[in-house]
Write a structure and sequence with these properties.
It is globular, with a radius of gyration of 18 Å. The protein contains six helices and five strands. Helices cover 34% and strands 12% of the residues. It has one domain: Rossmann fold. The protein has a five-stranded parallel β-sheet with strand order 3-2-1-4-5, sandwiched between helices. It is an alpha/beta fold. The longest helix is centred in the first third of the chain and has 17 residues, at 29-45.
């Protein structure tokens, strides 16, 4: 049984003037894409319908989510590196989170550092998976430890269920900026479309 060293608050029921945040620590472009349905579900259940999205710069999240209506802002933070770099990155993340004066954050991974950073930044509502030591720094009960070896998508499905956040689909259906789509159509207009 994990002991939560931070005070618990009522999960996800308090309206917030400040947009809530979602933090995704995985480094890749594909990681942003497969997390997107969960980000949308969290935003849809939130007051204002938008989130601030934190991700590593290697994820290209700013470019990928430029046309995503549920993302108010995308902010990069560094997560990886040597033990020393990770410690420095943790301190920087605490400062970054404090500057945004967030009331609520969702941590979409089982790693401890974002949960610890959110607690140190004074974010009162910290929603996370609660697998392993992370459970000491979140304010929701988390998902059961029996999910520890599940696939990360199954972790997030379980978290949505636990937090009573409707998840209508796990298909990303990425929204692209209209100017980018128009530029691509113009560039390839002279060529026949596949299958035609």
């Amino acid at each position: 049984m994990a002991i939560n060293v931070m005070a618990r608050v009522t999960p996800y029921a308090t309206p917030h003037a400040t947009p809530l945040a979602v933090i995704q620590v995985k480094p890749g472009i594909g990681d942003v894409i497969w997390h997107l349905p969960f980000v949308r579900a969290i935003a849809a259940a939130a007051p204002g319908g938008k989130v601030i999205f934190f991700a590593p710069p290697t994820s290209a999240a700013k470019e990928l989510l430029a046309a995503e209506p549920c993302v108010a802002n995308t902010i990069y933070f560094r997560h990886a590196g040597s033990e020393l770099q990770r410690g420095v990155n943790l301190i920087r993340l605490v400062g970054l989170l404090r500057r945004h004066r967030l009331q609520s954050i969702w941590i979409l991974d089982r790693t401890i550092r974002p949960a610890l950073a959110a607690a140190l930044a004074g974010i009162p509502e910290r929603i996370g998976l609660g697998l392993g030591p992370q459970s000491a720094f979140i304010t929701n009960p988390g998902i059961g430890q029996d999910h520890f070896h599940d696939h990360p998508i199954d972790w997030l499905r379980a978290l949505m269920t636990e937090m009573k956040v409707p998840l209508h689909s796990t298909e990303p259906d990425l929204h692209l900026p209209a100017d980018v789509v128009a530029a691509i159509e113009k560039k390839f207009a002279q060529f026949a479309r596949p299958g035609s």
